[in-house]
Amino acid sequence: MKNILDLPLGFSLFQFFIKWCSNGLSNCYSILVRIKKKETFICILFFLASLFSLTPFLRCIGLTIGEDEGVLLKENPNKKDNEKKLSGFFVAGFVGPQWIRSSGGHMEGGNSKVFLNNDFSTILSPTFGYYWYNPKKLGHFSFTLELTSAYNSSLISVHSGLHSFTVSTNTGLVFLFGTVGYRLRQWEPIIGLGSGIGILAPQGSGIQVVPTALMDVGMRYHWTDKWSLRIESFFGWLGSSKDYVGNREISSIQYFSNNIVVGIGYALGNF
């Protein structure tokens, strides 16, 4: 890229400015020789003020011009970053609190209705996926397809009438998850949806495999092309399962969970 002052057009504009200044001086000189010193000083100040007011015009001449096309261009240093294609595999890890509750179940022996809840537990979640972001084809939109797993160990309170019990449950999740984002430079709000299987190991009742579904909203922050921070809120559902309190079976349990997780992602490959 060349400065416009180095080209014939720029040189002509510069010549015009110099000629204008010289004409102004010559006109002022014929007046100055016929007036007093005080008025002369005022005229000089007026001329200097006029010259200073043209500084933005001189700066405007400093626009760059395409070497081949000869078209004036305004350079935007962020344009290349905004239009960069950033697609590839990534890994991420998440951690955060989880709250579990149940819409109810039925306890063996009288078929009494029970309610289950867990006030607080911690969930760990590693993720592997693919990130699509091509502003020339997709605009600001981005997409991910993620294979996600999660693990949680918790104590669940069981309430039946005036009686309360506590059971322990280990839960593992494996699901396929997709998100849609709208990238605004570093910030990227996202929504997501996924489904898979839940592997439950309640106390004393063996291993159970149930369907699961998740949806989330969140935000990504890309502080470099490689590293990103994610904050997400998940709502999850686990299909019908069973548990035991002593020798009594609790059936038709469907768990609902809310999670708030924070994660760090790393893009694989070269960008």
TL;DR of this structure?
This protein is of the alpha+beta class and 271 residues long. It has helices spanning 8-32, 37-53, 55-61, 79-82, 135-138, and strands at 2-3, 64-65, 72-73, 88-102, 105-107, 112-132, 141-160, 163-182, 187-202, 208-222, 227-245, 248-267. The strands form two sheets. Strands 4, 5, 6, 7, 8, 9, 10, 11 and 12 form a nine-stranded antiparallel sheet that branches. Strands 1-2-3 form a three-stranded antiparallel sheet, with no helix packed on it.
Just name the CATH architecture of the largest domain: Beta Barrel
What fraction of residues sit in β-strands? over 45%
- How many domains comprise the coordinates? 2
State the separation between the terminal residues, measured CA to CA.
26 Å
Specify the biggest β-sheet: 9 strands, antiparallel
Protein name: Outer membrane protein beta-barrel domain-containing protein
Organism: Methylacidiphilum fumariolicum (strain SolV)
InterPro entries: OMP/PagP_B-barrel (IPR011250)
Keywords: Membrane, Transmembrane, Transmembrane helix
